[in-house]
Amino acid sequence: MNSLLPGAWRNVSNIKLTKAGDFGKCKRRTIHLARQYATESASSSSSTPPEPSPKKSSAHGQRSNREKKRRHIMFLQGVPISALPSDIARLLKSYDIQGYLRIQRDYVRFWPTDSVLVTFGSLGERDKAIKALEYAKMLGINLQPAAASTMEEAPDSSQPSKQPRLRGREGKSELLDHGALSGDGPAAGLPDSESGKNVVLSGLPGKLYVASLRKELLEGFDLREDVNAVAKIPDLDKSLYSRFVIRTSSVAEAHRLVRAVKMTPYLEGAWGNRYKIKARVIY
């Protein structure tokens, strides 16, 4: 019976009268519930539809944001190591492929592989590109396109962490500053905004310090205004040689650095031809 009463009146039957003075309290409580019931009835009879709850609205907004951040990726294998993103762009243009957002080389510990990742904003454009490149060749090498989808994650502010960390471009920059990047994945795990601006130098002495490299080789080059513009890559193989990531201020400066030091001996007067520098731009 109690379940059939309106919401404002359901509490009336739960009031227990134990003393004579409780009748006054019951009367005041009844008047209050009557007013509440009148308010509920007026709001329910109104033609204005009820607003969605904040919880549902928030969930809908999260779904919409996830859909906007979805990216469709085409893996293109068999690409020559010497091919630049501009070469891949000309290849896509020759096959009338449009709608791609970025082109990134895949790396393993800062060494380029024969795989390139092309990101599309539309699933249809991605599938069209895969079909068009099915029998494509580059420098006589058969290309192998494949499909994969990924979701770019955004930080979740609803679940605070005890040790918050940065993500995306700022997070990658922070990891590079601390020497924590492994050099794996698209663009070697470096920020997208620095594509073409970073240079990897290898073949240098194993115990070479950052300060020595700056002084003896990098003077005169325009690097980022940051104390961590030169970072030593952690050595996992206990090699006699070392590698460094150099973060320049522009794409042109990165290419100028490569042209100036590539295949030149490091401190020839002290080491002779023992340490020949290898340099490449990271895309």
Automatic annotation (TrEMBL):
<feature type="compositionally biased region" description="Low complexity">
    <location>
        <begin position="38"/>
        <end position="48"/>
    </location>
</feature>
<feature type="region of interest" description="Disordered">
    <location>
        <begin position="148"/>
        <end position="178"/>
    </location>
</feature>
<feature type="region of interest" description="Disordered">
    <location>
        <begin position="37"/>
        <end position="68"/>
    </location>
</feature>
<feature type="compositionally biased region" description="Basic and acidic residues">
    <location>
        <begin position="167"/>
        <end position="177"/>
    </location>
</feature>
<protein>
    <recommendedName>
        <fullName>RRM domain-containing protein</fullName>
    </recommendedName>
</protein>
